[in-house]
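Lab notebook page, bench 4
Experiment: in silico fold of construct C2
Operator: M.H.
Input chain length: 517 residues
Purpose: comparison with the prior construct
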Amino acid sequence: MQHSVLSTGRGARAVGLETDDPLIYRAKTGPNRAAVFEVASGRSYSYGELNDIVGRLAALMASEYGAVPSTRIAFLGRNSIAQIAVCLACQRAGYVFVPLNWRLGASELKRIVDDCQPSLILYDTEFADTLAAMDDLDVATLSVEGADGIWERAAQFQPLARIDFDADLPCIMLYTSGTTGAPKGVIITRRNAFASAINFSMVGEVTANSVALCDLPFFHTIGLVAIGRTTLMMGGRLVISDRFMPDRTLATLGDPTLGITHYFAVPQMAASLRAAPGWDPAALKALQAIFIGGAPLSPALIETFLEDGIPLVNGYGMSEAGTAIHMPLDRDMVARYPGSVGFAAPLLDIRLVGEDGQDVQDGEVGEIWLRGPSVTPGYWNKPEETASAFSDGWYRSGDLGRRAEGGVIHVPDRLKDMYISGGENVFPAEVEAVIGAHRKVREVAVIGVADPKWGECGIAFIVPHDDHPSVEEILAHCTERLASYKRPARIVFIDTIPRTASGKAQKHVLRQTHLSS
């Protein structure tokens, strides 16, 4: 299964993908409707205005790089209207948008640039020094703003007329967050992006009346596809924030002139909002739910928000498939199945597969396999990794799932994170949920390490609250709630848990910390 070289066919738009460009239909039917608002600047555009900007950006890029489908255009910058416009312009011109993780260092970014080999890197001036620090960078660069930037230059062009492209051409490439090491470029085709948006529009009940706040970075599928693309495709209003700051986010969520209905966060962000001095559930009446993903969600946190009348709606997804499993926006169901990630998205087939390659029974744990139009065709320039990720057309997620009462699915852990202690399987997420419920624990991550007696044992890395617990308190808490083989053999208190932009603990970093200690 080769995916290093991609089709460059043109003029073969698939039936049913007339609206795969999320702006064209909305600009025709509601040109004066509010489309985007930028929190930092106050800049705002209607659908007609945004569509015009995207067309001009596409024309500018086409004049520079011609009609060469799959040309990569990278972007290094925080969330902005400019970034979402460039992403959509790349699709309109037939190019591939590659948002770069601005949290990475220059050497890490250089490896990604070397891998995807973009023809251009667009950047915010905030990251000019990062670009300058990349050794032997042989790529054209252009700032976004400024007299000579792409935003101003685009105004000189007439909007690019619609061009039909093969629905299976790539339009986005997202580099995985790298919880296990070096990131890989996930190819997202036009068909993938369209199907992903349809999936989230249905599970998230996104409509033309929705107003979605996005402060999760656009270099992640949650921000760029689930929130950004879905909201615009459905004709809602996208409120773009360049960063998460609890006080500012709360003020934006409670702004009656915006009327935010949808907000997506990782569990750590939700907990920070709830603990912020300005927390006022009464000000969030327009909010239908806070959508959660990226990391395990504790039942205790769910209950806390439900008490305030705001459901935390859990879900499960990935760069390779977009939104895959999701709880419905139903408070009773959220309360009934705390911790569950819900049901399969409508355009996805899901299997839970055991080590023997057969589907497991309800209540048993199996690897989550996915199939559907939102699933990636593979990884950029990595045919071996692509081949190993698929089995008979099914994408093997590497995550473990268990189907429970009513058909809801729980994700106990990643397959690679599970360890075996004394012959018994231990899922770190289960241990983390128990330890995380301790009132003196702010965050926790558990890894399995080699042990001469038990084969493997657990180490719990804990970020404590100001009221610091003792090792004995944590162990006693575990003894009351966990079988002996699940209890961590060692407790380590640390200041922070290294995490990816999507909130996942970087356990390979913690493992290295253990080996170095």
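Observations: The first helix runs from residue 24 to 29. Confidence is low (pLDDT under 50) at residues 1-16.
Next step: discuss at group meeting.
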